[in-house]
Design brief:
homodimer, 233 residues, 60s Ribosomal Protein L30, Chain: A, Alpha/beta knot, 2 domains, 7-stranded parallel sheet, 3-stranded antiparallel sheet, 9 helices
């Protein structure tokens, strides 16, 4: 039973709240029974696994919690990255909010066979907030990394200004498809959008917001493209 | 210039972090230039409007911030509720996360003409987290309140176990439509789902999560139904 805050495992867990420490060690944490259970279900072995009351005094575990939720269990895992391939994947560019990155990891796990591919400027998918927002899908479906130019397949840019509306008819492209989504306000940089095979807009009402939240937009796009792939795009 | 933390306006702003105080006063706060700007754009007059450096010492405003973001401006507004009507609305039941409630308010503003209708067990849409997640749409499109039984129009329940898949063909119902969405894990209570005019599932891959996050599911449902209304359901 760990009874000292100076314990090396506790210090590691606390340290992994910082992006730099995650990058240096290649490790990350998952807090709570649901996430640790998702790791186990996906066959991941924890490097460290501390249960309050069993392995460590509860208040010491609370003190190293990144989410302030008083987790009963915290696991430390080695980061894994997937290959950027699949019939349908989603590429994120400059999506800096970890909650959005995690939410898209979950949506992609539910809706498509390929991973979330992270381009420049995206939040760390292994940050505590992103791991929590993924609701465990980060274990079943680890993310990939790639530049826009290296993406394999037809690139479909979500672009609020595009003339072609999502859902309005056949898109005339064949799988593999990569849905490309930019940051909340700016969208994809114009030079990338211009290189996409197709640009499509989610039809929005006049007078409303110019765009959906990035995670919402990615989820709607994946839903529509997944339906089209099963209906032969 | 307010220089005392005992100032009545500052105390009001701090008090409005609590749900009980919002219910008793009928007021709520919006923090930050974007939200205050959205209120102004929608023609809402603030009951109190404090700008750091102009009206109040910046560190005093920071101390009453609900979001801990060091807002430069905080406004206090009177809550408004809309009528539950429109060609397409969304009803939430037991959606307890304020971020999800706010996100759906934004998506509904972008995708449909009706409001978000809040049933029992939903988070307060006027909480600071919900207001922020709405990205200002709460001002342009205030929520409504209703019981399930009082909803006007064809009720379409999102139900992960439904045989009819969203996007697979005509739904055979006429507007007005109300998309009905339950809590993340439990979904709509079975007795309500049974009373819906139609139950549909978002098609998800086998082996993935059983459901999407409630806000994601509501957004996908609104997107699909909005497209169908414009294509005559």
């Amino acid at each position: 039973m760990i009874t000292s805050p100076d314990n090396a495992q506790l210090k590691l867990i606390r340290k992994l709240q910082r992006k730099k420490a995650r990058a240096e060690t290649g490790l990350f944490t998952a807090e709570g029974e649901d996430l640790v259970g998702a790791a186990e279900a996906a066959g991941w072995e924890a490097e460290v696994l501390l249960e309050a009351g069993e392995d460590v005094e509860p208040e010491l575990l609370d003190r190293v919690s990144a989410l302030g939720s008083g987790s009963r269990v915290v696991g430390v895992y080695r980061q894994r990255w997937a290959e950027a391939r699949g019939d349908l994947s989603v590429y994120l560019h400059g999506v800096g909010d970890p909650g959005n990155v995690g939410a898209v990891i979950r949506s992609a796990h539910a809706l498509c066979d390929g991973p979330v591919i992270l381009g420049p400027g995206c939040a760390d998918p292994f940050s505590p907030k992103a791991v929590r927002a993924s609701m465990g899908s980060i274990f079943a479906r680890p993310p990939a990394q790639s530049g826009f130019g290296e993406l394999i397949g037809a690139k479909i840019a979500l672009d609020a200004g595009a003339e072609i509306k999502l859902g309005a008819g056949s898109l005339g492209v064949d799988a593999p498809l990569v849905l490309c989504v930019g940051a909340e306000r700016g969208g994809l940089p114009p030079e990338l959008a211009a290189e996409a095979d197709l640009a499509v807009a989610i039809p929005l009402r006049e007078g409303g917001p110019d765009s959906l939240n990035a995670a919402m937009a990615a989820t709607v796009g994946l839903y529509e493209l997944a339906n089209r792939i099963s209906a032969d795009v």
